[in-house]
Amino acid sequence: MQFLEEREHMKKTRVLIEDWQERGFNALQALREKRCSSIDSEEEAAPSAVYLPILAYYMDHSILVLNANALRDFVATNAIESLKNPCKISRQTVDVACRSLNLILSDPVLLKHMYGTHNNQLIMICHASSEILFATTRGCLPPDVMETAAAKVRAVTRHMETIARGLPSSSAASLYTTLSNIFSQQLDKYISTNQASCEPMQEVIPTDWWNALGGDMLVEMNDLFPEQLFPELTRHGESDIMLG
Question: What b/e string do you get for 117-133 counting C-beta neighbours within 10 Å, with b at 16 or more?
Fold first, then answer.
């Protein structure tokens, strides 16, 4: 929150955005490592220690939000291509996104309580998947990294399908499982055609999705639906909302 507040008041230039992102990323990474990975013997014996992966998961999402805002600012100021390494932030994001998805898929506590996954956690899962898709469409991932990341997206989609099957069809899990499937299918299309810069095929979000989420609320999820990847979501008054 401190870094996001700083972003609101700073002048948006390439140099300042780059410095802001680097400081924020390093600070959050260091805090995550210190708080979630380095457990002393006294804390390790505490019952609460088993829940540290949940904290790590939330901190990973904070890093994804930080990087998403940095990329948005770079694009808005036409500075993305003038970076020394324009794919650096995207690669960072993919590493963090895969790390967060791996926690969802492997942490014993998160697996034990998977049917209690809250709406915001489901959004975080979809956000991680969308960031992997976004980085792929920008051509920022070598084939091996792309396939590893895609495998995580496929696996977490199957995981969400398992959760959705155990809950009523009207649950948020069913809604976000549909969205996760869209991201996974889009990613597979890019990989199979090996044309990361081409326009993706369009997938329709069912109308009941739009109505259930209150329509415009979905448009406001800018981290989940970057405008550069989903320009159709900025249109209003259409009967069907398309993901492009």
Answer: beeebbbbbbbbbbbbb
Look at the block and give the residue holding tokens 């390439």: 14
Structure tokens at 187: 């990613």
Both tokens assigned to 107: 């942490």
CB neighbour list of residue 209: distance below 8 Å, 6 or more residues apart = 175, 178, 179, 218, 241
pTM: 0.78
Which residue type does 165 have?
R
Those residues whose C-beta lies under 8 Å from the C-beta of residue 22, and which sit 6 or more positions away, are none
Q: What is the mean pLDDT of residues 128-151?
A: 90
Q: What is the mean pLDDT of the chain?
A: 79
Which string of DSSP letters, residue by residue, matches 44-58?
HTSGGGGGHHHHHHH
pLDDT band at residue 38 under the 50/70/90 scheme: low
Q: What is the pLDDT of residues 48-79, one digit of tens each?
A: 788 899 999 999 999 999 999 898 888 888 87
Q: What secondary structure does DSSP assign to 128-153, as a single string? A: HHHHHHHHHHTT-S-HHHHHHHHHHH
Q: Which two tokens stand for residue 64?
A: 């994804």
Cβ 67 vs Cβ 83: under 8 Å: no
**Domains of the chain by start residue, with CATH:** 2-243 (1.10.3450)
